[in-house]
Each structure stands twice: as structure tokens, then as C-alpha cells.
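User: Fe-S cluster assembly protein HesB. Structure?
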Amino acid sequence: MSTAPKDLAETPMAEKALAIHRRLCGVYGCPIPYFHDLDPVSELISSLLSHRTRNADSGRAFKALRARFNDWDSLVTAPTEEVQALIAGVTWPELKAPRIQAVLRAVQARAGSLDLAFLRDMPVAEARSWLEEIPGIGPKTGAAVLSFSDLRMPALPVDSHHHRVAQRTGLIGPKVDVGPAHAILRAQLPADWDAQKLYDNHEILMLHGQRCCFHRNPACGACAVLDLCPTGQARTESRRPDRTAALHP
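Assistant: Predicted structure:
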């Protein structure tokens, strides 16, 4: 797992990250309730299904798996074609079905069972490393398992919306991919923040990406953090009418 400088939380960029956090918390209403309360293995499956897939579609696929299998051990041993058919509504079901089964087999081999409750007793960095050593589990999935599940550990997931807002506001560079962004963005926030505050940070940046900072045609004029966003300021400035041209046609 990549790391960021330990003193990053004491930089001007950290001050900016906190300013954005406070501003967007006011817009979206922190603390934000957790959207579900799954055990960590169920959250792992849910997160693997959600990659590049709409929440509604991945949610239906997860419910289909739960309805079909009495326990996740049965999913591991099921025919892969059956699993693929059940999750047909997600993006790349032909890849996700064997991947989910392979990841769960790796968990069984390492932990002795499909039970990840023991991660709660580890430091967050150690728990993330344990998960991310399994092929198929990246930084986002590892953080999601710790944060979104009933473990409620202080880890910071970064999805595509969160990443886009972070890049446009300059919290990360334009060439920093989602994976490396996890360590950088976490290091900008106070080390003593609890699970709820880090969850809020993820949620408000994600919601801002979904509701204002769109992939195409972001609503910069309605943005609550426009004064903290160099990308938005540049876009807004470029669209202002040329007053000189108007006076001298």
C-alpha cells in the first residue's frame, strides 16, 4: 500500500482540505448516516460488484446473490456461470464472477474462514495491508470494507467522484490516479479523525461530484467551494464575456 508523507497534515494543502470539508459539510449535512450495516465479507462482495457500476445495479446484484446462497461459502463453490448470471446487471459480470470467488477463496485460505471480524483488532494500516495483499482487492475496496461495514474503522475510500473533486480543487495533482490518491488525501486530514469524520469526508466529496462537480459540464457557478477551486475559477473566467470586445465591436 502506498504511503504519503506523515507531515502532510500540517501543510497549507491540509488547511485547504479542512476548509473544503467544513464548507461541504455545511452543504450536505454532516454527520452523514451510514448507508448500510453489512458484515465485512458482505461489504467486500458489495464493493467488488460496485466497480464502474451504478449503485442501483450493484445493489440488485448483491440482493440476488444473498437470495440465492444461504451463506457466502456456498457462493465460493457455486458454478461460476451461475454467479455470472445472477450478477448480469453489473458492468463486466464475466470478470467479476470469477474474481469474487477467487477473492473469497483467498480470504478463506488466509483467515481460515469467511470471517473478517478480526480486522477490528488491527491498526487501520495493518488491516488495509492484510486485505490489499489479496489479488483483486485494491485501495478503494480495502478502505470500503473497513469504513462501510459494521467494522466502522477510520479508513478513507476514494471513488471516481471523490477523486475528480480532489483533482479539480487541487488537493491532488492532475496525474495522480485513484489508487495513490488514497494515501495522499488521508494524510491531509487529521490523524485523530474517527470513522464518522472520514466517512463524512468521503461522502461529501462524492456527493459534490455527483450533484455539482459533474464529469462533463460541472456547475461551477453553483459550487460552494468555487473560491477554493482553481479549475472552477479558470472555467468561470473563460466563460465571462469579453467586455473590451463588447465596447469595440
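The domain at 40-148 is CATH 1.10.340.30 (Endonuclease III; domain 1). The chain is about 60% helix and 0% strand.
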